[in-house]
């Protein structure tokens, strides 16, 4: 049978509609991928300053722990917990309390004395606990250190 050139064919032009729908789907996928990439970049941009602040805090804690180990924060009464030093204390030991030129806030506190860990004689030794907290930007790290010393009595 011979077709008429202007016959009404319902399938005619369907490829155009399918191609347009496919183009819309691909455009939506592209927009979603761009948003995801932008979010990942923002996360990475925020992570670097956080890590830098974390490392400054960590370095500050190690520095203050070294000062505790040297005995530069004396404990007046071993039976009483007390804050030994902060960044605002009038007489801080050693040079400036900075890590790579960046200052940090800190608190060194004495927590009391306790039984020594395994391997030390409980008759002759005590464990003296200290809490050290360092803050840089909006990152805060708190740790607990101890020193072993002569037996303390209440």
Describe this structure in words.
- By secondary structure, the protein is an alpha+beta fold.
- The protein has one domain.
- Helix content is 37%, strand content 28%.
- It has 1 helix and 6 strands, in the order H-E-E-E-E-E-E.
- A 4-stranded antiparallel sheet has the order 1-4-5-6. It has a two-stranded antiparallel sheet with strand order 2-3.
- A hairpin with a 2-residue loop joins strand 2 and strand 3.
- The model has no long low-confidence stretch (mean pLDDT 87).
CA gyration radius, whole angstroms: 33 Å
Strand content: 25-35%
Q: Helix amount, in percent?
A: 25-40%
Total number of β-strand segments?
6
Regions with little confidence, pLDDT below 50 for 5+ residues: none
Number of helical stretches of at least 4 residues: 1
The biggest sheet amounts to: 4 strands, antiparallel
Residue-averaged pLDDT, rounded?
87
Describe the global form: rod-shaped
State the distance separating the first and last CA atoms.
Answer: 114 Å
Structural class: alpha+beta
Order of strands side by side in the largest beta sheet?
Answer: 1-4-5-6
Number of domain units: 1
H/E order of the elements? Answer: HEEEEEE
Salient structural properties:
154 residues; alpha+beta; four-stranded antiparallel beta sheet; two-stranded antiparallel sheet; 1 helix; 28% strand
């Amino acid at each position: 049978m011979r077709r008429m050139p202007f016959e009404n064919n319902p399938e005619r032009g369907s490829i155009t509609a399918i191609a347009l729908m496919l183009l819309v789907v691909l455009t939506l996928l592209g927009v979603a991928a761009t948003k995801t990439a932008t979010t990942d970049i923002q996360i990475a941009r925020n992570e670097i300053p956080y890590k830098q602040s974390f490392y400054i805090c960590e370095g500050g804690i190690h520095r203050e722990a070294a000062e505790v180990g040297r005995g530069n924060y004396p404990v007046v009464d071993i039976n009483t917990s007390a804050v030994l030093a902060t960044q605002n204390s009038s007489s801080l030991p050693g040079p400036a309390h900075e890590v790579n030129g960046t200052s940090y806030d800190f608190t060194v506190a004495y927590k009391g004395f306790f039984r020594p860990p395994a391997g030390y004689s409980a008759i002759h030794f005590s464990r003296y606990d200290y809490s050290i907290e360092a803050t840089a930007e909006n990152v805060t790290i708190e740790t607990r250190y101890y020193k072993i010393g002569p037996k303390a009595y209440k």
